[in-house]
Amino acid sequence: MTATDAPPAPRPYHRHDISVHDFWDRDFRSRDDVFADLRAEDGLSWQPPVEAIFPHEEPGYWAVTRHADIKFASQRNDLFGSSFGISVDPMPAEIQRGISFFLSMDPPDHTRYRRLISMSFTPRQVRRIESQIRDNATEIVDRLLDDLRAGRDVDFAADFATKLPMRTVSDMIGIDPADREKVAYAAECLFSSTDDDYASLEERATHTMAQLGILTSAGMELAQRRRVEPREDLMTNIVNAEVDGHRLTDTEIGAFMVLLGSAGNDTTKQTTSHAFRALVDNPDQIAWLLDDFDGRIDGAVDEFVRWSTPVISFARHALVDTELGGTPIAAGEKVGLFYCSANRDEAVFERPNEFDITRSPNPHLGFGGGGAHFCLGSQLAKMQLRHLFHELLTRLPEVTLGEPEYVHSNFVHGVKRMPIALA
Ligand code: HEM
Hints:
Layout: H1 28-40, E1 45-47, E2 61-64, H2 67-75, E3 80-81, H3 93-100, H4 109-118, H5 123-128, H6 130-149, E4 154-155, H7 156-161, H8 163-173, H9 177-191, H10 204-228, H11 234-240, E5 242-243, E6 246-247, H12 250-281, H13 283-291, H14 293-308, E7 313-318, E8 322-324, E9 327-329, E10 334-338, H15 339-342, H16 378-395, E11 399-401, E12 405-406, E13 415-417, E14 419-422
Parallel strand pairs: 2-10
Antiparallel strand pairs: 1-2, 3-7, 4-14, 5-6, 7-10, 8-9, 11-14, 12-13
């Protein structure tokens, strides 16, 4: 072998390793000290592959940490695609497709499916279910108050925050009340697959596939029932819709169920827990909000989402040789988009580590960096948060919150447990 035949030396990894398991044991604030260093440096950092439950040959990925670079990559799906995978963790693209449906597609497939599903998310459709959301929020807070007054042990995250998103998504899709908890739990497990509370490392692959199976078969069973007995729900629309002259297959319907079951449940739940804690820690901001709730809640909800950043990351793959943030990226290389870092970028946000519901403008990337995949449920999520916090802040007496326990994950910023009691 001559010197010219020698394989190129592997590209060195950055001194800050954000792939290592222990990094995600640290709290959000201290992780952001590392992200702040990465944001301040030129270019992107090359990171080792995350420890994976599936075999792979991924050499590593580029970490994108600045607000402007994440926006650019999100909006240029001609350069950065989703069909080779959207997870920072190495995972076969076909498994990701089974979990995330059109979230891991590129045009023209993505455009067709998104158009179909969007029919259920128009502002008119979302307004249609507003009274249902309001009633559910009232009832859920009634229950919380009863439990607290009766002196029962209540966990804000596990017993309360999970309820409204679960009902909203279930009502929308048409999931039977008896199956709601099962679907929500399976979705939560999928989101938290690297946390030992849900499954040990050895069990992880089988556990993930089992939860995936529960969601997929729940979707398929429901589809079969709606074909026979249509109702006014999203599943009925989906089974009757045609994309390019063909009806959706059972596999596609299963994947759709997994996407909505997970995208719609856990994200809004986590925002509720983080935001409630931040408000309890800042009673002056509760008072400011209550002075003009209707006029101020929309801005506050944006800060809830920026502050929480429930979705920490997604990924894209370069479709051509290109450049991002001053770094050349070769076709096929993966870029990890760290929304958690974008939402603390000092180039965009003053005092980024302070919770401040008066922030305006608030161009956070909690729902994504814009572009084709921007969160389809953002209006629905905001509406739920508006109604839930109205009930919570106007009806709940003073409470104390226990220390939150966080989910170990590089994907979801989650609160597992947060005890609540009357003060
Ligand atoms: C606070 C709550 C939520 C947050 C933080 C959130 C965040 C996100 C993010 C970061 C993305 C990816 C954006 C991108 O790749 O550019 C996304 C996509 C998506 N979200 Fe949400 N989401 C929330 C609530 C919801 C709800 C309630 C639903 C539906 C019931 C939903 C449905 C979707 C769907 C269907 C997509 C895929 C869109 C596409 O690929 O075209 N999300 N969301």
